[in-house]
Specification:
This protein is α/β, with parallel strands linked by helices. It has 13 helices and 18 strands. The protein folds into three domains: 127 residues, Immunoglobulins (Immunoglobulin-like, Sandwich); 70 residues, no CATH class; 167 residues, Rossmann fold (3-Layer(aba) Sandwich).
Length: 477
């Protein structure tokens, strides 16, 4: 019995020793698999290290595949963490007829994206991704909600600026478009669209495009033709005037009354006041008024009539003095010219009006010329001139001031009559030809407008006569 118990004890100890050896071997294997930098001491351990490396690579590849199939959407309301994951699904339908085109006849920097996506597929939204040829990764530039019963157009001016939307109705509800502006014309850009639905996404292939600057805008062909006709008319009538032919220009009562107004002041022995407005020398109305001042100065030099020219700008004062001096010199009366004839008051609008009114009341001029750029002070000046009993000849191209001048003055040059004064008074062939050519050009343009209205009306009423419409010839949309 004693020998039997000793035998059983030895067998049990042997079994326990074998189990402990197996556990240690397993622990060594697991340690070698997890550790990356532990040196291998035997061929068995090297084999285990190779298996470990293969396992790590497989895990990394699986992680890359998983990450590539995940798309993060920031600030999504359905997830409390602020990030929702979309898994890529190759079976999810992508937009069809996806095109990116440059806009014709523009200044460059703009492209139009268009695509179709059926409404019955119930996509959630589309994301537009873009990258330039200098960039490696795509960036989201806009998000467009799907299943909207409008034709959606978005305009992106710059990445740093907010987008503005223009929504228009369209017959094809599956058609979408996007307008992307602010591009560099020297770079190529790549676009693609990501469609998302029910936690899945799929994307189109990238499309390459480059925005271009159009040298000629075909939509403005009609403007080019009108400019050619106008130039031809001006050159033609200038040559006619230089050849000695008399050109008809309708009479302008305000300019015809200049000689009579100066003569009246001479007979009364009182001065003539000329106000060239409150505009600076860069104002076309001021230049037109100074042109009339030259004609008035010649008459005052001829009749030895006192002349007073108050101005509100220093440059106008210098220019006015030169014009008056040249007029007196041309009439052979340089000794009668005085620099004090043209004098500066103030740049302040109503301060200038008060100063001129004071001179009118004190000096009581027989004739007053109000020629140039006027604003709220126009009625103040005109009423004071009427109060002192002067003949007033006014002129301005500001439509808002014309009613006051027409009411308070004896004669008024309206709009283009002010600019035509230089040609009308000087009778120089070049100026007369230019004025006559502009009138002829305007007549041609007016006739073209009338003919166009008639042709468009006929084409709209009769579908068989669509060829009469000018839209087919001038690219008018």
């Amino acid at each position: 019995m004693r020998y039997i118990l000793i035998f059983l004890f030895l067998v049990s100890a042997n079994m326990l020793f074998a189990q402990n050896s197996d556990k240690k071997e397993v622990n060594k294997t697991s340690d070698v698999t997890i550790s990356k930098d532990k040196p291998q001491a035997s061929p068995t351990k090297n084999t285990i290290g190779d298996k470990k490396e293969e396992a790590v690579q497989e895990v990394a590849q699986e992680e890359k595949k998983y990450e590539s199939s995940i798309f993060k959407l920031e600030n999504h309301k359905e997830n409390l963490s602020g990030v929702k994951y979309f898994i890529k699904d190759e079976n999810l339908k992508i937009p069809t007829n996806f095109t990116v085109k440059d806009i014709d006849n523009d200044g460059g920097g703009i492209v139009i994206l268009s695509w179709k996506y059926p409404l019955e597929d119930n996509a959630e939204f589309f994301e537009i991704l873009r990258r330039s040829e200098k960039e490696k990764e795509f960036k989201k530039i806009a998000t467009i909600k799907a299943n909207k019963k409008e034709f959606v157009v978005k305009k992106v001016v710059k990445a740093t600026k907010k987008t503005s939307k223009k929504v228009k109705k369209a017959k094809d509800l599956s058609l979408y478009a996007f307008r992307n502006a602010g591009l560099n014309d020297d770079l190529h850009y790549f676009y693609k669209i990501v469609v998302k639905k029910d936690g899945r996404f799929n994307e189109t292939k990238e499309v390459k495009v480059q925005s271009l600057v159009a040298i000629f805008d075909a939509n403005k062909t009609s403007v080019l033709i009108a400019a050619i006709f106008l130039t031809f008319a001006i050159v033609f009538f200038i040559k006619m005037a230089r050849s000695g032919k008399k050109l008809y220009i309708r009479r302008i009562a305000g300019l015809d009354a200049v000689d009579d107004a100066v003569g009246r002041a001479t007979e009364m022995g009182r001065e003539i006041m000329f106000v060239p407005g409150i505009g600076d020398i860069d104002d076309p109305q001021t230049i037109a008024g100074l042109t009339i001042l030259g004609r008035v100065a010649k008459l005052t030099a001829q009749y030895k009539t006192p002349l007073s020219v108050p101005v509100s700008k220093s440059m106008v004062m210098v220019t006015g003095r030169e014009i008056v001096k040249e007029s007196y010199l041309s009439m052979g009366r340089p000794e009668n010219f005085q620099s004090g004839m043209v004098y500066y008051l103030t740049d302040d609008q109503f301060g200038f009006a008060a100063g001129v009114d004071g001179i009118m009341v004190r000096e009581k001029p027989a004739t007053i010329f109000l020629q140039g750029s006027f604003f709220a002070e126009s009625l103040i000046l005109a009423e004071t001139g009427h109060h002192v009993g002067a003949i007033q000849i006014s002129g301005t191209a500001a439509p808002s001031q014309l009613p006051f001048f027409i009411t308070a003055c004896d004669y008024t040059l309206m709009g283009e009559e002010l600019y035509a004064a230089s040609a009308y008074l000087s009778r120089e062939p070049q100026l007369l030809g230019s004025l006559r050519g502009q009138d002829a050009g305007k007549a041609i343009i007016l006739a073209a407008i009338i003919i166009g209205i008639v042709l468009e009306t006929i084409a709209a009423v009769n579908p068989d006569l669509q060829w009469l419409s000018i839209k087919h010839y001038f690219h008018i949309k």
